Amino acid sequence: MLSSPPSPVRIPLTVSTVTNALVKLKRNTSKTEFIDSTSGEPQTHPLLRGEGATSKRKVPLVQSDLFFCRDAVDVPKLLRGSRASLFERAESIGANVLIDESWECSIRVPRDRRQGSFKVQVRYNASASRSSLPDPQKPVALDRVQNVSGLMTVVDREELTI
Fold it and tell me: What's 120's DSSP letter?
């Protein structure tokens, strides 16, 4: 004698069961997207590269910042801000130029770009030194940045301690 196939499990269709199913689906399918860029190896501006252009004494410095931006990310502006903070620290110890510069930038893209904010971590490394030449006041390797196009609004900035 043949038995009938088992009946499928039926779950009542309510608002809460549908909501729970959608939340589980969103958690499984949503991966956080990151946009990473870096300057590469440490570099010194061409103006300061020549023999005797800077003092042989140099002090390594690091500036690490966390920016929260809305609508877009303009990485060169964020790098300028981090470099300016680093340059102020260099001046406080008697230096007047930055050499051997490098940076790393990581942008966390919000799931919903219209409602969320971009979380951008910038780490700027350089060595403080002295020179008779002026500091260029410009980050190195700006051709390597990866931006998120649009008009950026910086909502908050936190200096991270290392």
Answer: E
- Dmax over CA atoms of the chain, in Å, equals 101
25 SS3 class: helix
Q: Please write the tens of the pLDDT for every residue from 82-107.
A: 999 999 999 999 999 999 999 999 99
> Do 63 and 127 touch, CB atoms closer than 8 A?
no
pTM of this structure: 0.79
C-alpha closest to that of 110 among 45, 155, 159, 142: 155
Find out whether 87 and 63 touch, Cβ atoms under 8 Å: no
DSSP 46-95: GGG-STTSS-S--EEEEEEEEEEEES-B-HHHHHHHHHHHHHHHHHHTT-
Identify the H or E element spanning 22: helix 15-29
Q: How big is the chain, counted in residues?
A: 162
- Tell which phi-psi region holds residue 63, choosing left (phi > 0), alpha (psi between -120 and 50) or beta: beta
**Do residues 147 and 71 touch, judged by C-beta distance below 8 A?**
no
Q: Smallest Cα–Cα separation from 79: which of 55, 103, 49?
A: 103
Only one residue has tokens 């020179």, namely: 131
Put the strands of the sheet holding 118-129 in their side by side order: 33-38, 97-109, 118-129, 59-70, 153-160
